[in-house]
Amino acid sequence: PLVQHSLNIMLDFYQNKKITLEKIVEKMCHNPAMAFKIKDRGYIREGYWADIVILDIEKKWEVNKENILYKCNWSPLEGTKFKGKVETVLINGKIALENRKFFDLNAGMRLAFDRDR
What does DSSP assign to residue 109? Predict the structure, then answer.
C-alpha cells in the first residue's frame, strides 16, 4: 500500500531539491497518460477531464493510523513525516476529497484508451 502516499514521496524529493515540481507533474500525470494512451487525461487542457490535485506545499504532517485510507488499515510509511499535503482532489472537475472528507458523487468514470495513437 503506497498509492495514497506516492505524491508525498515525490514531494519529499522536491523538498530535498532532487526533482522539480514540473518533473513530478510530467512523471505522475503526463507520462502515464501518454504511455497507456489514456484519452483526454494527464494535462490541464481545454476539452480534457479535470483531474486535479490541490496541495499545501508547506504543510507538515505525519502518516499515522488515523490518516491511513487503505482498506488494510496499515502503511509501511507509518511514522514518516512529510512536508506537503494533499488538500483537495477533483475528479472530472468535481470535488471528490476536501479537508480529508470524501464526497460521494460518483465522479469517476471508465477511462477511454486511444489505441490508435
Answer: -
